Amino acid sequence: MAPRAAGRARYAVVGTGARAEMFVRALVLDHADTTELVAFADVNQARMDAHNRWLVELGHRPVPTYPAGDFTAMLDSERVDVVLVTSVDVTHDEYVVAALRAGREVVTEKPMTVDVPRCRRILDTVAETGGRVTVAFNYRYNPLHEQVRRLLAEGAVGEIGSVHFEWLLDVRHGADYFRRWHRDKATSGGLMVHKASHHFDLVNWWLAATPVEVYAAGRLFFYGADGRRHGYARDYDRAHGSPAAADDPFALRLDAHPRLRELYLDAEAEDGYQRDRNVFAPGVSIEDDMAVLARYSTGATMTYHLTAYAPWEGYRVMVNGSRGRLELEVTENDFVDRGTVGAVKGAALHGTEAPAEGGGATLTVRPFWAPPRQIPVPGRSRHGHGGADARMTGVLLGGEPDPLDRAATADDGALALLTGLAANRSFETGQPVHVADLLTAR
User: Given 142, 250, 342, 442, which is the most exposed site by the fewest CB atoms within 10 A?
Assistant: First the structure.
């Protein structure tokens, strides 16, 4: 890894969709004393131009833009120290590997990549170059999740025997994965990879363990062409310009969101990408209802369920141990108001959630032979994944202390990814999958 030049670290962002905005704002506003944004790279010039307009609004000069094909040349031209990878998931490995071979550090959005060959390629390149890859698992930085980590590490429930983890995506947030490129498993790895890698990483981190064996069952139940049988489908391919989508609660109104309009609707002419597909249109190859049973290196087991069509959004985590039980329940919003037709969940835009949403959290330790203890929980932030985004960028970009080892390595990224890939393999075969076999099989 080449040494950094003195002064502020020079960052380039590759992939200028909606997720990039959080990192861009952190670079130019929150950590401008230690970081400098010097370039964008993308396959779509219109999206890079949109980000440059927003930079000007923030009082920052526009930065040079590069076609994705000129990524490696950009690293030298702009003397880049660190690359932030926020492109479509299936392309992460291309930029991660190129940056490592050029001697640059990398911070990549989760999931690290989407399949075994790409995962192996990244790990091999890290080993060959000695380079550093950090995976942006922002859920590690949520104060609630940090509290769970501390309690378990302190032995609040003793030796851990099992975990039950249920995650519910509501019919606004969950539906959004079926409108965009995530609906294609080849580009996203499906929700077992794109979404659940967050959750699998949390369990790995909480248990200080690695997954050994995974058995899973999943199907496309609610969305997609077969989901039309449930009676919610309207007859259109994409929402924009379609009268049939006018009052569809599953339709996205791109023209109602200035940021999304600039990034996607106004950029369609360059690459043809449509951000507002009908969630009941043909072509969905990912699952929306998934159940997983995993065994870990410590002997603990996890039962996990992800539902992408729930009436409310939130999650429940139950940890059973030799001295009691820990229970975490989080309500991110308690229902979806039909008055938000055409809207997206705040987290999808990484801004403020709708005022109508109701939420809360409880954290309880239930020891043997004693009354349950309610653990105080921090105030719930409605910004950036419960405040986790800002805490994460403080560590990854601002160099803030990290006593809980929240900064995830390439190995951490691989372990979370492999749990999801093993689940996907089990979906196909109906058999349990040994996680280590995925990387060693050629």
Answer: 442
Threshold 0.85, pTM exceeds = yes
CB 82 within 8 A of CB 11: yes
Q: Quick one: which of 316, 300, 314, 302 has its CA closest to 363?
A: 316
Q: Annotate 33-55 with b (16+ C-beta within 10 A) or e (fewer).
A: eebbbbbbbbbbbbbbbbbbebb
In this predicted structure, the answer to whether residue 382 has a pLDDT above a threshold of 70 is: no
| Conformational region of residue 102, where left means phi above 0, alpha means psi within -120 to 50, and beta covers everything else | alpha
One-character DSSP codes across 224-277: TGGGGGGS---S-SBSTT-GGGTT-TT-B-GGG-HHHIIIIITTHHHH---S-B
Rounded (10°) CA dihedral 82, 393, 93, 65: -60
> Could you tell me how far CA 297 lies from the centroid of its own chain?
25
6-48: per-residue pLDDT in tens? 679 999 999 999 999 999 999 999 999 999 999 999 999 999 9
Cα 232 from Cα 213, distance rounded (Å): 38
Q: Identify the residue whose tokens are 């890290």.
A: 126
Inter-CA distances, 132 with 114, 293, 327, 400, Å: 19, 32, 35, 18
Contact between residue 383 and residue 141 where contact means Cβ atoms under 8 Å apart:
no
Q: What b-and-e string marks burial along 208-243, b requiring 16 or more CB atoms within 10 Å of the CB?
A: ebbbebbbbebebbbbbeebeeeebbbebebbbebe
What is d(CA 246, CA 248) in angstroms, rounded to the nearest whole number?
6
How many CB atoms within 10 Å of residue 244? 14
Per-residue b or e along 77-112, where b marks 16 or more CB atoms closer than 10 Å to that residue's CB:
ebebbbbbbbbbbbbbbbbbbbbbebebbbbbbbbb
Return the HEC string of 300-355. Answer: CEEEEEEEEEECCEEEEEEEEECCEEEEEEEEEECCCCHHHCECCCHHHHCCECCC
Q: How far apart are CA 105 and CA 101, in angstroms?
A: 10
Q: Nearest Cα to 346, choosing from 392, 385, 393?
A: 385
In whole angstroms, what separates CA 279 from the centre of its chain? 20
CA angle 345/347/351 to nearest 5° reads 100
Query: For the chain, what is the mean pLDDT?
Result: 93
